[in-house]
Amino acid sequence: MPMRALRTCHYPGCPTLVRSGYCPTHQAMRAAEVNYHDREAQRLYSTVRWQRMRVLQLSTHPWCAECLRANIYTPATDVDHVNPHHGDQQLFYSGELQSLCHSHHSSKTIREVNERKDGVGVNNVSDVGDASVGAGPHEKNSQCGESA
Ligand SMILES: [Zn+2]
Ligand SMILES: [Zn+2]
């Protein structure tokens, strides 16, 4: 009778016995492969080409796109890819861009990371923005008029 609760690591040639999938070493290696794309993304952000694109984007769209939805003019500090590029050069350089303030960019990045963890491919993030805009019943006329 076969007593093989354990099997060898999925990685070709690795003799380590595991219950399923990869041994800890090769599990870490696979995680590093995922991180590779993040590192590649970091590298892309430091290129001269991106620096130029960034300056151009901020000069043509100086206000945070998310804040603008709520009729708030916040100077944008970050240039964001509307669609996550995950280090893909093609998407990185030719994807659609938007200017965001730092807090909106941070919250969008966190949301994207969470979506990746859940494995849910939610592309339509605009619903979230619309909901937050619609949540304020007293539009611009009550608050902004007085503060000025
Ligand atoms: Zn292994
Ligand atoms: Zn903003």
Structure characterization notes:
The chain has 148 residues and is mainly alpha-helical. It has one domain (14-134). It is built from seven helices and four strands. The protein has helices at residues 24-45, 48-60, 65-69, 89-94, 102-118, 126-135, 140-147, and strands spanning 7-8, 17-18, 78-81, 97-100. The strands form two sheets. Strands 1-2 form a two-stranded antiparallel sheet. The chain starts with 6 loop residues before the first strand and ends with a helix. The model is unreliable at 120-148 (pLDDT under 50). The site of one zinc ion (ZN) has 7 residues, from helix 3.
| Distance between the amino and carboxyl termini | 83 Å
Strand order of the largest sheet: 1-2
Categorize the overall geometry: elongated
Number of distinct beta strands: 4
Question: What ligand species are in this complex?
Answer: zinc ion
- Major sheet summary line: 2 strands, antiparallel
Strand content of the residues, in percent? Answer: 5-15%
Mean pLDDT: 80
Low-pLDDT stretches: 120-148
State the order of secondary-structure elements, H for helix, E for strand: EEHHHEHEHHH
**Structural class by secondary-structure content:** mainly alpha
Number of domains in the coordinates?
A: 1
Tally of DSSP helical segments: 7
